[in-house]
Amino acid sequence: MRSAMPSRRSFPFTLAFTALPLLASGCREEKAAPPLSSLAPAPLPTVPGSQPAVADAGIEAAREAAYQVAPAELFGEPVPTGAARVELVGGVAKLRGKDHALEDASARAQLLAAAGGKVLLVPDADTYVAQVAPLLVALEDGKVETWLGHPSGKVAWKLTLRDEAEFNTWLEQPVPGKVRIVQRADGLELVTNMGKVLGADPNGPSLPLRGGRLDVAAERAGLEKVQKRFEAPDICLLPSFGTELAQVAEVLSGTFRAAGEGIFPERCLVYPRPRK
Q: Which of 27, 36, 116, 205 has a CA positioned 20 to 30 A from the CA of residue 14?
């Protein structure tokens, strides 16, 4: 008759399974790591007025509300005294009744010599950024204090001129914010070094055109929110090179919260430096 004792083969496995609860009871219970989403920075603010209309307002009513915008107040700095007033008409700069072709290097040199060290640029409705690029190069290289006046003649804005290479250098500076406005044909992008401020359409501009007009009031409100977060020393405006300077002036008005009171201490205009 065989004994009921366990065989030598099964005995080690019995010990092993007996020891497992003892080992488990000796382990410390570790807390789960916090999710990565909790470590992300707070999202950028949304632009007031950029949210889509409520669904129950009806398609036609929502569409009508989306494409209406009231004209915003025009804010800037007082028109500077002692600045040479240069009227821009297409590719021609007019100073004291004399025309200077902007594409002509000698004409630009004569213009700078006659203007002195301080210039107020006043564009007409059909002068584009690309047309005045040669003049902007001459003004920056000549270290001429440059102002852009509103076509109405009521206000102006002092500008720091930067070409694309200088703008990229500016972006790399270790300063919080790096707030810039990208002026597109379909509206404005408000961008920081943490990303783009979203509007109603994440694939569209932060501030789309409203009824064919720039939404300067919403731009102003959005920049106020962004500046409260970053306290940035300056802001750059990057218009597409086919943009009218008069439209650039409208966007610059949105960088002021009131007359003579800029949301940012300084403003820069990024322009295309023509290749030699």
A: 27
Amino acid at 143: K
pTM score:
0.77
Locate 234 and state its tokens. 């300056």
| Inter-residue contact 197 to 45 (CB < 8 Å) | yes
Looking at per-residue pLDDT, the higher value among 10 and 235 belongs to 235
Q: Please compute Rg for the chain using Cα positions.
A: 31
DSSP helix/strand/coil, 234: strand
Q: Which runs of E-coded beta strand occur in 138-229? A: 145-149, 156-163, 179-184, 187-192, 195-196, 207-208
Q: Within a 10 A sphere around the Cβ of 275, how many other Cβ atoms?
A: 4
Helices of type H across the chain: 11-26, 59-66, 105-115, 129-141, 164-171, 216-230, 245-253
Which residues share a beta bridge with 160?
A: 268
pLDDT in tens, 156-201: 999 999 999 999 999 999 988 999 999 999 999 999 999 999 888 8
Tokens 């008005």 belong to which residue?
Answer: 253
Q: pLDDT (tens digit, 9 = 90+) per residue, 129-146?
A: 999 999 999 999 999 999
The answer, yes or no, to whether residue 47 has pLDDT greater than 80, is: no
| pLDDT at residue 14 is higher than 70 | no
The CA distance from 236 to 216, in Å, is 16
Burial of 194 (0-12, 13-18, 19+ CB in 10 A): middle
User: Using CA atoms, how far apart are residues 247 and 137, in angstroms rounded to an integer?
Assistant: 20
Domain boundaries, the chain: 55-271
Report in angstroms the alpha-carbon separations of 106 from 101, 112, 128.
9, 10, 21
